Amino acid sequence: xxxxxxxxxxxxxxxxxxxxxxxxxxxxxxxxxxxxxxxxxxxxxxxxxxxxxxxxxxxxxxxxxxxxxxxxxxxxxxxxxxxxxxxxxxxxxxxxxxxxxxxxxxxxxxxxxxxxxxxxxxxxxxxxxxxxxxxxxxxxxxxxxxxxxxxxxxxxxxxxxxxxxxxxxxxxxxxxxxxxxxxxxxxxxxxxxxxxxxxxxxxxxxxxxxxxxxxxxxxxxxxxxxxxxxxxxxxxxxxxxxxxxxxxxxxxxxxxxxxxxxxxxxxxxxxxxxxxxxxxxxxxxxxxxxxxxxxxxxxxxxxxxxxxxxxxxxxxxxxxxxxxxxxxxxxxxxxxxxxxxxxxxxxxxxxxxxxxxxxxxxxxxxxxxxxxxxxxxxxxxxxxxxxxxxxxxxxxxxxxxxxxxxxxxxxxxxxxxxxxxxxxxxxxxxxxxxxxxxxxxxxxxxxxxxxxxxxxxxxxxxxxxxxxxxxxxxxxxxxxxxxxxxxxxxxxxxxxxxxxxxxxxxxxxxxxxxxxxxxxxxxxxxxxxxxxxxxxxxxxxxxxxxxxxxxxxxxxxxxxxxxxxxxxxxxxxxxxxxxxxxxxxxxxxxxxxxxxxxxxxxxxxxx
Length: 607
Hints:
4-stranded antiparallel sheet, alpha+beta, 16 helices, 49% helix, 5-stranded mixed sheet, elongated
């Protein structure tokens, strides 16, 4: 094996990557540091825009407390924790201004105005983080809160249904709603019909004892809603779990589905708020502000300057280290590719693909190229072996007969001369076929195109094979559309159709039929050769046009052909811009179909 060349360090990809990274890092860090020194105050003010996000999170957590507690007792601990983690002053008061909780010292004045109103029965800060939606906060579950036993029961049912869904070819996920109920969400967003039929679980879609008790209370409250009086006595809220907090159908959608008007929906929503009101904290005002008097701006003291220098150095070291790691990972597969390419050709070395980046794609392409080269080498060896075998048989026969004649053991009578002539013709036929394939492969096959009448072409081919068909007891039939022309080489087209007809006669038994059909389909001329032979096995159909391939491996070369005829047909048809296909059913014969661009009839000269 040729040793790997030593690459000068100046040209090493690893060294160049590291140097380039260092140069970029020095420039970028220097520019960033200068920009930070010049615009520190503005940058800090922009960073304080994060305060808005923090304030939204504070409101979300305080609203969550209000949704899950009947009063504000214990909220002081939450306020202090949030104030410490967010660095914000947080205060809660009643609507009349009476203090509820405050992270600041007693007596500290409140900000000029409240930042928000905490009312979980009218504002939803849970469904979409960072947004305040109109509606009831899903965390306000009140009497629908499941005890531990019912939570476990519903979770078990949900897991059983999820396993059933996956067993029928789909998936989903489960999550626990604020009430403690486990809810299943299919991957496609909606359970499909097989799941409803095969994985239906009435117990999972039925309210638990706790939920049913709360739903019964809600039934009594909404029974007199306008538009629903006719359903009095019917458990409107007891149909499934539509009105359970955290389910997929909000109460307003449920009322709309029952045919209620906007007034009906408002009545249902009002009933829900009335039911949940004893379980949530009263409305309160939320005040947010800064802690103490924090100076704005940035003090470029020696300590801060040292921090900038230290951070710059750390960034430089980190960037160089990361670049070195990336470069090593990049160079390693390239070296593996180089080593594989330097292996002897007969080994067909491959590399392991470990990444999906550019080097991984390069390695995969290298492996594909190696596989194709190995396949071509195998085909070349097989082709040389087949050619040698095909040529050896007639040559051996000719040599044997000549040696017998030379030794005086057999007189050169007409039968012997005829036998030798047949062997020579067979040898010439194989050589001609190989020459045609070589011309196609090299691109030197010349076609002399001219207008060709299909009816005349079919008649010539059938006439050339009629004697053989009669001798074999096979009937030849033709069906040709009149006025069908091709722009083709007549000699090559006769050769292609003749090969197909000879192949059909070879595989058709006595008293069988071979039919040659030519018809017009749109802008195409379609020629088919159909026989009533034994047919071709489905696993053999993809190989019928391969060189030296025969369905019956035990067939002799003389009776079975050289295995080149169909391959030549395909090459000649494709050279004319057409296609050829083979269809067959075992025991029902085979059909070979040629599709070629249709030509035009030549103009006739006036006498």
